[in-house]
Design a protein that fits this description.
This protein has 410 residues and is an all-alpha fold. The protein is built from 16 helices and no strands. 54% of the residues are buried. The mean pLDDT is 80.
């Protein structure tokens, strides 16, 4: 009850105050992210595009989504290396410009092999942006503002995501899937132009760019590796939201593309309204980052239990609300945990590994989800997601105990 009273007060009286203290560079980075994300309406509809428009089998779609994930791994790793070598600014500009062109070209691919190769190359280039953006975010943020800065970026992502699927569903209904690829490509290039004009190194102010003279390897940091595997599992569970859930909403529940867009837009709207006040409230309560991740993953896991009652639309909506609150908690605090931990070594390497956790999830999540649905049906797939979520919870609990025994900050 105290939480809801706090959220009500912030929404009614002090919502703007939750954004105070963030640097103008973080706000510009959020704008670039908003422009970029508003156009990424292809991704939620990719599985539908492949099955409906190109008439691929679920088995083919599963392998295409695996290529999607492999490209994401390659892009995150390359992006981290390049960020440590040439800096985050150049990597972000290159990624946005080239991925814009690749999005436009992707619509002209129509064979299984060409689409697998095309999605791999596209995601390699597009996901070079992620580790570079995280390092930029850290550089533009004061230590005490990093979690809220991450939350602002997520707010921009989800504000774009709330508009993107709804507009995307409308475009598909009135025009065709081809228009989505043009919008994706153009918005990527617009984001690059904005970035060039507002975050050029000669204009942007660096607030935190501490370089460790004796960097430790992220690959030898035991707590971070436990965290890494927990995030892989969380990613597998959560990323069903981007592939199998839209398919489930259409085939299992009977929703139209436009209705699917509206349901997924609910996710972005909830995040826009509640996430920043929620994060500020949780920070003031003094909970550990690992403890909050445990709670967020628990919510995400529980949300899948509601999907087994697919004849009740209200429970489908409740599931979306629960997974959204889980997402609101896990992503900002896991990101903040990574940023803080990255001070031990090369930031690009740490943030690349954090990004790779979700890239690996992309490799397995979509393929596993579609293969399970094809062979065992929807309900058994959701049960598997619950089991995986429980394994992730065990890893995070082990991480919490390990760090407590080593007297490390959580």
């Amino acid at each position: 009850m105290k939480l809801f009273n706090y959220l009500y007060y912030n929404l009614g009286h002090g919502y703007i105050n939750t954004f105070r203290g963030l640097s103008k560079e973080v706000w510009w980075l959020a704008l670039v992210t908003l422009i970029n994300r508003a156009g990424t309406m292809v991704i939620p509809f990719l599985s539908l595009y492949l099955t409906t428009n190109l008439e691929f089998s679920l088995d083919n779609v599963a392998w295409i989504m695996t290529a999607f994930g492999l490209g994401s791994i390659a892009g995150s790793w390359i992006g981290g290396k390049l960020t440590d070598m040439i800096g985050y600014y150049k990597v972000m500009v290159f990624s946005l410009l080239l991925s814009g062109l690749l999005f436009i070209g992707f619509q002209f691919l129509n064979t299984f092999t060409s689409i697998c190769i095309g999605i791999f190359i596209l995601m390699t280039v597009a996901d070079m942006f992620r580790p570079a953006m995280f390092v930029a975010l850290s550089a533009y943020s004061k230590l005490e503002n990093k979690t809220r800065s991450v939350t602002l970026i997520r707010l921009a992502i989800n504000l774009g995501f709330s508009a993107g699927p709804a507009i995307g569903g409308l475009i598909i209904t009135t025009m065709s899937y081809g228009g989505l690829f043009w919008v994706d490509g153009i918005t990527c290039m617009i984001a690059a132009i904005v970035l060039l004009n507002v975050l050029h190194p000669k204009k942007a102010k660096i607030l935190d760019m501490e370089i460790n003279p004796n960097p430790k390897s992220a690959y030898k940091d035991k707590p971070f590796l436990i965290f890494f595997f927990a995030m892989v599992i969380f990613g597998v569970v959560f990323l069903q939201f981007l592939s199998t859930l839209p398919y489930f909403y259409k085939e299992g529940v009977g929703l139209s593309e436009f209705e699917i867009g509206l349901l997924m837009a609910l996710n972005g709207i909830l995040i826009f309204v509640f996430e920043m006040p929620l994060i500020k409230w949780l920070e003031q309560k003094g909970y550990t980052k690992v403890g909050l991740m445990i709670f967020g993953l628990l919510l995400t896991t529980v949300s899948y239990l509601f999907l087994m009652y697919n004849t009740l639309i209200v429970l489908i909506v409740v599931s979306m609300i629960i997974v959204t609150f889980g997402e609101m908690i896990v992503f900002p605090f896991s990101n903040a945990f990574s940023l803080k931990r990255s001070k031990r070594g090369l930031q690009g390497e740490y943030m690349a590994l954090y990004s790779i956790a979700f890239s690996i999830s992309h490799v397995f999540a979509h393929n596993l989800g579609f293969q399970m649905i094809d062979s065992l049906g929807f309900d058994n797939t959701w049960i598997l997601m619950v089991i995986l979520g429980c394994i992730g919870l065990v890893l995070l609990i082990l991480l919490k105990k390990f760090m407590k025994s080593k007297s490390e900050t959580q």
